[in-house]
Design a protein that fits this description.
alpha/beta, about 15% strand
């Protein structure tokens, strides 16, 4: 199981002199049970950047009554999944240079290869090219144990492993996509929350 973070090239020259603060555009993807939201919040706080989650993107667009938000609300109200194209448009709008001029921590996007390609194309147009990837790795058995210990009725081992299989099928091609265009740094994702967060930041200043 893996998680990955993406940083744009404007951060590269700033890593040592500014300790990454306010100079990073980052995407966080994790397998279920890794603690994606918590790690995204910790990283955003340390780098003084906005934490933009897909859930928050939808809530914000809907509350603001934007065209995209109203479309998303219609799908949500009907109990159906928001289409890939709409999700992508909302995410790209949320991390625009107007809203996130100095960078961002994007949480939960891209989830599949189509979203990854659309994100890359959008960043290229804005001259905000991604420079390298940090991959957070956690053994599947460790994640299964974590989720079983939560004690939720629907978290049986079979259900959890099926969820992981679906996740891998969707997101492994995303990782492969980025492997073809940039360096990937692997980080051990097992440990205390702050310890893992420090590993991520420290890997960028080596």
């Amino acid at each position: 199981m893996f998680a990955f973070f993406f940083f744009n090239d404007t951060a590269t020259s700033e890593i040592c002199t500014r300790s990454l603060v306010g100079s990073v555009r980052c995407v966080l993807e994790t397998a279920p049970g890794v603690g994606k939201g918590t790690q995204a919040e910790l990283l955003a706080s340390k780098l003084n950047l906005p934490h933009v989650s897909t859930g928050a993107i939808f809530r914000s667009a809907i509350s603001e009554g934007t065209d995209l938000g109203l479309k998303a609300k219609a799908f949500s109200d009907s109990g159906t999944l928001v289409p890939d194209e709409l999700t992508t448009s909302l995410a790209i709008e949320a991390i625009s240079t107007d809203k996130c001029p100095n960078g961002f921590i994007l949480d939960g996007f891209p989830r599949n290869i189509n979203q990854a390609q659309a994100l890359q194309e959008s960043l290229n147009i804005q001259n905000r090219n991604i420079d390298f990837v940090v991959c957070l790795t956690v053994p599947e058995n460790e994640l299964v144990s974590r989720m079983l210990n939560r004690g939720r009725v629907d978290d049986t081992e079979e259900v959890i492993r099926t969820r992981f299989k679906v996740y891998e099928e969707l997101t492994s091609p995303v990782l492969d996509f980025y492997k073809n265009i940039m360096e990937i740094i692997q980080i051990n994702g097992v440990g205390e929350l702050n310890e893992i967060s420090e590993r991520i930041v420290n890997s960028l200043v080596k």
